[in-house]
Design brief:
Largest sheet of chain B: 6 strands, mixed
CATH superfamily of chain A: MetI-like
Radius of gyration of chain A: 21 Å
Helix content of chain B: 25-40%
Oligomer: heterodimer
Largest interface: A-B, 23 and 29 residues
Distance between the termini of chain A: 51 Å
CATH architecture of chain A: Orthogonal Bundle
Largest sheet of chain A: none
CATH class of chain A: Mainly Alpha
Helix content of chain A: over 70%
CATH class of the largest domain in chain B: Alpha Beta
Structural class of chain A: mainly alpha
Strand content of chain A: under 5%
Number of helices of chain B: 10
Number of strands of chain A: 0
Number of domains of chain A: 1
CATH topology of chain A: MetI-like fold
Order of helices and strands of chain B: EEEHEEHEHHHHEHEHEEHHEEE
Structural class of chain B: alpha/beta
Number of helices of chain A: 10
Order of helices and strands of chain A: HHHHHHHHHH
Number of domains of chain B: 2
Chain lengths: 221, 274
């Protein structure tokens, strides 16, 4: 309890809110790494997931690969890639991409699959091309599920990005690993509180986006 | 004219949906394919706009093999009304009706203008234009489905049990409206149903199908009722049902039509059919 109070005191110290090693800088770094990891993963996983969902092909393989990717321990990956690529951003970002892919993939293919097969059949029968079916019917109707995949991936990655600091990068993990090394538990706890708060804020923000993205008229009466 | 020439459809797992089917449908004619489930009626209808490709034989429209046409262009030129409407739930009534013209490159304003005209043609109130499909009754949704199919002014209209999911009163209303529309528009209609009474009402000619797309009988409703080809047709059209077997009785100087169970069905008018 005292350490928790000390952690809040640590956070309240005004000197920590400006300068090169300040909380805002680390927060932005943390967000930037998250964006990098989720963004690169989305570039790969969303198109693949949409194709799988639209064509109903390769779903078994996708689920199997996603399952395998989920089972990989991210700390192990960061260490492994770190040994491979050395100190820097490549190793941790690669690990975050692998962490984010399964949720994004599942969000993308379930977005397509959740659309009523009769609606898709009707769109095709009216003369929509496959691309038009995907972009004008499946994506608009499945958008909340797609965004929910992005939300899950973002929350997972934002909670894991502190590992970037483990091999010499910035981010909120700096406080956690520094605190660990110095046995400065209030600082460690303060870092954790910031990560948790950030994860909650991102979760809430993307939940709102999900709601706004829900197609009008799709609520079945 | 639509022609089916020894058309067959066998699925990769060996299921034969249609064995060997021949039929010619004249322009402006409405032909009803009627049969139980598994008779291949929907499969046959969907061959016209290449939603299904036959594994043998060919389907031609005005002499041109549909297999040689681009399926997307073909589908935009053929109206298609389906059971449970198949409307896009995230688009308004007006946008749904304008779907095909917009796909064909008509400007949105012009397509909406045409859609508004069609709403009137199919008996939808103007105030429905900005509603979403989920806010409409089943009957209204089917009217939107018909309007959408008519939007690009196709020569051919495919109708897949379009009134199967609405209650009997609304169904009768929609059937009457369809007959009115057809008198004005004179489309070539291929209509699929499992309801023989609907088939007799809508079809200039009726094709009664047995499982596997085998034709049990083709003819006008009158021909089929007068001369059922075999016991299958006789039982399918209910030729032996009491309400199909009518006779006349003299009551108060007029001829009253009575069915086989003794129920008075109506009065015989002089001068024949209108």
């Amino acid at each position: 309890m005292i350490q928790l109070l000390e952690a809040f005191a640590w956070l309240a110290d005004p000197t920590r809110w400006s300068g090169p090693d300040s909380i805002p800088v680390r927060l932005l770094e943390h967000l930037w790494y998250t964006l990098l990891g989720v963004g690169i993963a989305a570039l790969i996983a969303v198109p693949v997931g949409l194709v799988v969902g639209h064509t109903h092909r390769g779903r078994g393989l996708t689920v199997a690969l996603s399952g395998a990717a989920r089972a990989l321990p991210t700390l192990g990956l960061v260490t492994l890639f770190g040994l491979w690529f050395g100190i820097g951003l490549t190793a941790p970002v690669l690990a975050f991409v692998i962490l984010a892919i399964p949720s994004l993939l599942a969000g993308a293919y379930s977005a397509c699959e959740a659309v009523d097969a009769r609606t898709v059949d009707a769109a095709r029968a009216q003369g929509m091309t496959e691309w038009q079916i995907l972009t004008r019917v499946e994506i608009p109707l499945g958008l909340p599920l797609l965004i929910s995949g992005i939300r899950l991936a973002s929350v997972q990655v934002v909670a894991t990005v502190m590992l970037a600091s483990y091999i010499g990068n910035g981010g909120l993990g700096r406080y956690i690993f520094l605190g660990l090394n110095l046995s400065d538990y209030p600082q460690m706890l303060a870092g954790s509180i910031l990560v948790v708060a950030l994860a909650l804020v991102i979760d809430l923000a993307l939940r709102l986006v999900e709601r706004v993205a829900a197609p009008r008229g799709a609520a079945r009466g | 004219m639509i022609a089916f020439e020894s058309v067959g459809k066998t699925y990769p797992d060996g299921t034969v949906a249609v064995a060997d089917f021949d039929l010619e449908i004249a322009s402006h004619e409405s032909v009803v394919l009627v049969g139980t489930s598994g008779s291949g009626k929907t499969t046959l209808m969907r061959m016209v706009n290449r939603m299904v490709d036959p594994t043998q034989g060919r389907v031609t429209i005005d002499g041109e093999d549909v297999a040689a046409t681009d399926p997307v262009a073909l589908r935009r030129s053929v109206g298609y009304v389906m059971q449970a409407s198949g409307l896009l739930p995230h688009r308004t009534v007006l946008d749904n009706i304008a779907t095909v013209p917009v796909l064909r490159g008509t400007g949105k304003a012009q397509a909406h203008e045409r859609a508004a005209e069609l709403m009137e043609v199919v008996g939808l109130e103007e105030s429905m234009a900005s509603r979403y499909p989920s806010q409409l009754s089943g009957g209204q949704q089917q009217r939107v489905g018909v309007a959408r199919a008519l939007a690009a002014d196709p020569n051919i209209l495919l109708m897949d049990e379009p009134f199967g999911a609405v209650d009997p009163i609304v169904r009768a209303e929609l059937q009457t409206e369809l007959l009115r529309l057809q008198r004005e528009l004179r489309k070539t209609i291929v209509f699929v149903t499992h309801d023989i009474d609907e088939a007799f009402l809508v079809g200039d000619r009726v094709v009664i199908l047995k499982p596997g797309g085998h034709i049990a009988q083709i003819g006008t409703p009158e021909q089929i009722l007068a001369e059922p080809a075999d016991d299958f047709v006789r039982s399918f059209v209910g030729a032996d049902r009491a309400e199909r077997r009518l006779h006349l009785q003299q009551v108060a100087g007029r001829e009253v039509v009575v069915d086989a169970s003794g129920r008075a069905a109506g009065v015989l008018e002089q001068g024949g059919t209108p």
